[in-house]
Amino acid sequence: xxxxxxxxxxxxxxxxxxxxxxxxxxxxxxxxxxxxxxxxxxxxxxxxxxxxxxxxxxxxxxxxxxxxxxxxxxxxxxxxxxxxxxxxxxxxxxxxxxxxxxxxxxxxxxxxxxxxxxxxxxxxxxxxxxxxxxxxxxxxxxxxxxxxxxxxxxxxxxxxxxxxxxxxxxxxxxxxxxxxxxxxxxxxxxxxxxxxxxxxxx
Length: 202
Known about the structure:
3 domains, NA-bd_OB-fold, 9 helices, DNA damage, RuvA_2-like, DNA repair, Holliday junction branch migration complex subunit RuvA, DNA polymerase, domain 1, CATH 2.40.50.140, alpha+beta
C-alpha cells in the first residue's frame, strides 16, 4: 500500500495534483479542500494517500492530513458511496466541518454537500457518528491562503473541475455562471467551485 507521497509538486488543479516521486510523476485525485492547502508548483509537498483498486484501473487519492483521509475511508465504507462521491463531499466542506456536522446530526448542513440528499445525510449521521469518539472535538479548519484574483479561464477551470466531480457540462457551466454572478470578479477558482457545489446540491 502507498501510504504517502513526498516530492516536488509538478502541477495542481482543483481536483488533482501531480507529484514527482523518484523520477516518476504521480497523479493524485484530491478534494478542493486539499487543493487550497497546496504550495506553488515546484515546491515540496507531502500528501497522505489512499490507493483504490478496480478491475480496470488503479486510482490514487491524496489528502492534506490524517483527518481528511480517515473521513474519506469512513465515507466509502458506506454502501452507495464510492471514491468519486466521497471526494465530492470533501470538496464541499473541510474535513473538520464535515465531522462537526455528522457529530451534531446536522442534516440541514449535510444536504448542502454535493451528492448528499436527505436519506444519505441521515445515513451519514447514523453510520458515522458512533465511529467518532464522543466528546472529542474536530480539529479547527486549516486556514487557506488569500484567494487569487479572477483570471481568464477561471470559469472554464471551475467547470472542468465540476465535470470531473460528476456534473454534466451543462450543469457545470450553469452552476459556475450563477456562482460568478454572486461572488464577483475577485473570486478564485476554488471559491467558484465551492459555491457551485453548494448550488448544485440544492
